[in-house]
Hints:
Blueprint: H1 2-15, E1 22-29, E2 32-39
Antiparallel strand pairs: 1-2
Amino acid sequence: MGPVITNLLSNAVKYSPKVKNVAVSCQQDGSMVKISVNDEGMGVLLTRFR
């Protein structure tokens, strides 16, 4: 799981403008954990995943 989180953070920093924020949050939901990375970069088209 570590490499996945590292990749998410790396991409968020890499593709965001230098003066913008990258927000990371972590929430526990029972025995599961939800990790969110939000940035102000160019994003990914949803059609790429269909």
